[in-house]
TrEMBL record:
Pfam families: Acyl_transf_1. One of its GO terms (molecular function) is transferase activity. This is Malonyl-CoA:ACP transacylase (MAT) domain-containing protein. It comes from Clytia hemisphaerica. InterPro entries: Ac_transferase_dom_sf, Acyl_transferase_dom, Acyl_Trfase/lysoPLipase, Mitochondrial_malonyltrans. Signal peptide: none annotated. Residues 2-237 form the Malonyl-CoA:ACP transacylase (MAT) domain.
């Protein structure tokens, strides 16, 4: 029996489909519109994303605030985009600011153990740079039906990227999906909750759907024992 479903970024829509909250046809409609409006928002700014490993999220938040306070152009800023796992955070912002961070001019980034990695993406997703995409996404979401009945089961969890907690049947799922493209993905919270379910023996196996084994790798950084019960299934192979 499936006890919990979590989807990363656009994968959140897949999790809602698997849970029975939206139909496959409607999921694909949302995915198409979401991709179009987010790409359009990306084209308006020269932005990107950067992974920082080896620093607590709180320190990275302080770094973002400090760098933003130094900017004279309000359109030039950087924000946390994804809380991946403890000591690994993705930020998104203008290429100008990200270039400065990569040069390691800030004292916080001097330690050789800190790893910086640019992501091969064309925008600063899950940050305020996606605000112009929210209207189009909101429009399509209000044209499709969302079934919240599966969320009424207390023994079944479907996680929200925005809150890092399971959706509730009383949640406004449309609003949370719209917020998701502009707010940080709280993947750390989700993974920690999944790990807690595993430790409490509420889960006996974990299945990762999609290419690669990123979930397995992240779980392993929190609990090495979880790797033994995690199976990665590449649907493209």
């Amino acid at each position: 029996m499936i006890k919990a479903i979590a989807g990363y970024s656009v994968g959140e829509l897949s999790s809602l489909y698997m849970a029975g909250c939206i139909s496959f046809e409607n999921m694909m409609k949302i995915v198409r519109v979401r991709a179009d409006v987010m790409q359009h928002a990306s084209n308006a700014h020269n932005t990107g994303m950067l992974t920082i490993q080896g620093i607590p999220k709180e320190k990275i938040q302080e770094l973002c605030h400090e760098l933003n306070s130094l900017q004279t152009d309000s359109k030039n800023h950087v924000n946390i985009a994804i809380e991946m796992y403890p000591m690994s955070t993705v930020i998104g912002g203008t290429v100008k600011i990200l270039d400065g961070i990569v040069e390691r001019g800030h004292p916080l980034l001097k330690e050789p153990s800190i790893k910086l990695s640019r992501l091969p993406v064309s925008g600063a997703f899950h940050t305020p740079y996606m605000e112009s995409a929210q209207e189009g996404l909101n429009d399509i979401l209000h044209k499709i039906e969302i079934n919240t009945a599966p969320l009424e089961n207390p023994d079944f969890k479907v996680y929200s990227n925005v809150t890092g907690k399971p959706f509730k049947s009383t949640d406004n799922i449309r609003d949370l999906l719209v917020k998701q493209i502009c707010e940080p993905v709280k993947w750390t919270n989700i993974i920690q909750d999944v790990n807690l379910m595993f430790k409490e023996k509420k889960l006996d196996s974990i299945l990762e759907l999609g290419p690669g084994n990123n979930l397995q790798s992240i779980l392993g950084k929190i609990n090495r024992r979880a790797i033994r019960v995690t199976q990665s299934l590449d649907l493209n192979s």
